[in-house]
Design goal:
- This protein has 353 residues and is an alpha/beta fold.
- The chain is 42% helix and 15% strand.
Length: 353
């Protein structure tokens, strides 16, 4: 009896004794410790836009090597960098990225041979004839694609050639100097330089702008009917945590899928602060972004395997995103914090793969 009393007393004492273990350190639920890398979970290439001068940072380059198996140069493979002056090529910035990729067994997606926002001044002010202008562009495309043959797997040959309103051709110096069929000429010159490289047309807002998307589909089908080489389309996929709807995105992707070309989600970022209502990332908004990355990965995975060219995120650390300067407000659109911590958006991406 005495024993029972003693045991009861001991149990009662322990039950009311405060837990000696410190309460767990409160962690920021917006970050997490990953269990698998994106490229190891994915059944298609997962890439990132990188900058040559940032790959020298061990923390960033280690993260890039661990998570991604495809690279896009954020700006170093555009004409204004490749050709700072007439008959003058600047290979070093692009070579740094290509060499890093080759050394680490990563695919390189070339971006972008022709883009009206990356035209060097000497091209804008080109004083020669239209025929001489066309020859200069042909020589530029031929020289670049030849140099990176067997190192660059694919090129955005032309970027953003469709205007925002009405789906007509954008009035660019290329259209003015080479005529409406300049896009087909550029694709053919790229193919002539490399019979194996995959050739993409890349654009934004095709995710929700039906008129623009119809113009893009018409371009793809016209090329295919004329035997103009084209292998894929890049949805830039600059979206928000809450828009466009997944129904809208699914309709858009399936419409282009039906042309038969490969599909690249080429510049994915997910604005968490599109309405500028936040001054810091809330858990709720981070969770909404997490769900978005998951849904986008699932959407890409729903494509036929031979049309899954992959998903490329447009940057590494949140605070380096182009979106912040472009929209003029703080945002957290990517997979890693400015300190290189894994955000739960990465977790959503992994779950969607
Ligand atoms: O920091 C370098 C400096 O070291 C270098 O000497 C100088 C040479 O021009 O460039 C500096 O970097 C800037 C770079 O962004 C990094 O911040 C470039 O000046 C600047 O032109 C570059 O802007 C890029 C822009 O395209 C134009 O190429 C953005 O990073 C890049 O995010 C943006 O990406 C575009 C896609 O190509 C097409 N879709 C839209 C997307 C956003 O605009």
């Amino acid at each position: 009896m005495l024993t029972r009393i003693l045991i009861f007393a001991l149990v009662s004492l322990l039950a009311c004794k405060p837990d000696p273990v410190e309460p767990p350190t409160p962690v920021d639920e917006k970050v997490y410790t990953p269990t698998i890398a994106l490229k190891d979970k994915a059944t298609f290439p997962v890439g990132a836009a990188v900058q040559a001068n940032r790959l020298n940072l061990p923390s960033l380059s280690n993260l890039v090597k661990k998570e991604f198996n495809s690279l896009t140069a954020e700006y170093e493979m555009k004409q204004n960098i490749f050709m700072p002056a007439a008959n003058t090529y600047n290979w070093a910035p692009a070579d740094a990225i290509v060499d890093f990729a080759v050394a680490n067994g990563m695919r390189v997606h070339g971006h972008a041979l022709i883009w009206h926002s990356a035209v060097p001044d000497w091209v804008t002010n080109f004083a020669g004839t239209d025929a001489e202008f066309e020859t200069m562009i042909r020589d530029y495309i031929t020289t670049v694609v030849t140099r990176y043959k067997d190192k660059v797997a694919s090129w955005d040959v032309v970027n953003e050639a469709i205007a925002d309103n009405g789906g007509t051709l954008r009035n660019t110096i290329f259209r003015e100097r080479m005529g409406d069929d300049y896009i087909a000429k550029c694709f053919q010159w790229a193919r002539d330089a490399d019979p194996d490289v995959l050739l993409f047309y890349n654009d934004y807002n095709a995710e929700f702008d039906q008129t623009k998307r119809t113009a893009i589909i018409n371009l793809i089908n016209d090329f295919k009917s004329r035997g103009v080489p084209i292998d894929g389309f890049g949805f830039q996929m600059h979206i928000s945590h809450d828009a466009p709807s997944m129904a809208t995105l699914t309709t858009a992707v399936n419409q282009v899928k039906n042309t038969g070309v490969k599909i690249h989600f080429s510049e994915l970022d997910v604005r968490a602060n599109p309405n500028k209502d936040l001054t810091s990332l809330t858990l709720a908004r981070a969770q909404s972004q997490e769900a978005r990355y998951k849904a986008i990965a699932e959407l890409h995975k729903s494509l036929p395997a031979n049309q899954q060219f992959g998903i490329t995120v447009w940057g590494i650390y949140d605070d380096e995103s182009w979106l912040i300067n472009f929209w003029g407000n703080i945002d957290w659109p990517l997979l890693f914090t400015g300190e290189g911590l894994y955000k739960i958006s990465h977790r959503g991406f992994v779950e969607g793969l």
